[in-house]
Amino acid sequence: MTSVSDAVVLPSAEPSLLRRPRATTGFWSWFTTVDHKKIGILYGATALLFLCLGGIEALLIRTQLAQPDGTVLTAAQYNIAFTMHGTTMVFLMGMPLAVAFGNYLVPLQIGARDVAFPRINMLGYWIFLFGGIFIYSSIFLGGAPNGGWFGYTPLTSSPISAGVLPGRGADFWAVGIVMLGIGSVTSALNFIVTILNCRAPGMTLMRMPIFTWMMLVTAFLTLFAMPPVTAALTMVFFDRNFGTTFFDAVKGADPLLYQHLFWLFGHPEVYILILPGMGIVSEVLPVFSRKPIFGYQVVVFSGIAIGFLGWGVWAHHMFATGLGPAALTAFGLSTMLIAIPTGVKIFNWLGTVWGGSVRFSAAMLFCLGFIAQFTIGGLSGVLHAVVPSDTQQTDTYFVIAHFHYVLFGGLLFAMVGGIFYWFPKMTGRLMDEKLGKWTFWTMVLGFNLTFFPMHIVGLEGMPRRTYRYGSGLGWDVPNMIETVGAYVLSIAVLLFVVNLIVSFRRGQPSGDDPWDARTLEWTTPNPVPEYNFAEVPVVASRDEAWHRKYTEDAEGHLVRLPRGGADSGTAVATEPVSGKGAPPAEQGGGGGGGHGIHMPSPSYYPMILGAGILAFAYAAIYHSLLLCTVGAIVVLFAVYAWMLEPGTEPA
To answer: pLDDT above 90 covers what percent of the chain?
Structure first.
């Protein structure tokens, strides 16, 4: 007969390999965590590290081009620099930084305690990190990628034996992007399932914050955009290594097929990068204007429209390839059409600010800067819908100016503004506002000095991807201005990083609602406890946090309820919603303060599975049966143990 004491001992009889780690704090807990908030911070910190690496590559490029006949880099080194810069900024900074915000905020904004698949969430991070390490390791293990971040064939698909691109840089690039795509798809699936199935009671789709909406659209774009580029890069790898002829024109294939497949991914990719930034701006502007977003439904549906129309414009990257008049007309019109929902958003943002009680915090300034820079980029983008204009501008610095105004002026300005806005939510501290405003103005100055002159030299005929130019062409002064601007921009990034580090250690305590915010995440304490909500909230309206703090009197004037958020512009701690001092009505089930709320325990296996995939990647590069065997053993072990480990380790 089994006694009660015998039953208590049973969990310890499990094989040690199947026991989940218990620590949720400390250094090593970051390697095993499945908490969506910690994973979001890991994504963000890693993306900022890659931002710095990509920035260093950009400075090398600009230093080489500061004067005619530059000698800082050789032609080969320059090819590596611009290839790694583009790859880093798109795949290792832009996409992961958006995922960082989504990971941290989406469950909080919809009233969930975690994402739908916590361990898969962490697996996505490890694949991203290992993918970045894999690509950068190529510098030491056979040659860095040097065929451009777009990897056009037949340059990249020529067999290694032909010596067109010596070394294995193109292989590292192709395999690395496929690996990063696997991580992106896992994150996208997680966002879709979480948003559609894990919302709090009363959180209807049309009550969701706009940032969550934009992450949902972005997730669907990611899910359907990655297969075409994965197919293209797989064919490139096979052409280089196994004698296939997917892109060999001599054998009857068409190299333009690669461009179609790549840009079928590449233009939705633009919106994968920019839609999260649009969502951030749509959250920050109403708070610092003390008004609800102007035209909520229009902003939501214009984001959805951008997602749909983004699939019909890819060939405007190929107007110079001889597609024929029918295709040129169709894609020119679709490119003009997609400007409509984008422009609608800009007018909605301006309508939100207009007539509001505007507070020019650092977060607000960066979001207003987003509107200004993104509008310039959008206007230059519409010029690419005009086929004769695009034909002149193709492969000139005008194109570089355009997409940097959209992606850097759009994405990064919005992301920095979002960090200033949600930093108190993550740390319980405020970032330094004075230093933040210095960062903003320095970034605006450096950004426009760097990229605006590129419009001019592009229209004057300066080709992109050239490592030197001769004197007497009229490009000397603009290029020197661009290089000075790049260094000013690097100072702005340095100020931002210093602000992050200093504020994390010694920033002013924020209280729970320093901005008098509107959305549900601001009803939780700062920083957020592991379980997010002591009780799952019941949502009764859009801008739920705002309506819990304010009501209207008989004359329609705004009246603060007795228990509310911080006053305008001040940081005042509100009453706690968890812990010993929590009111009984707000304590978590089973014991209050979150006691009795069982969150998933940490796990080793996402990291182990990611390491197994990394081994497969190196096996593909070196055609190593040994590495392939090691990868297979690690992956099979991780998957098997993943399936068998308990959902939650007893405390």
So the answer is: 74
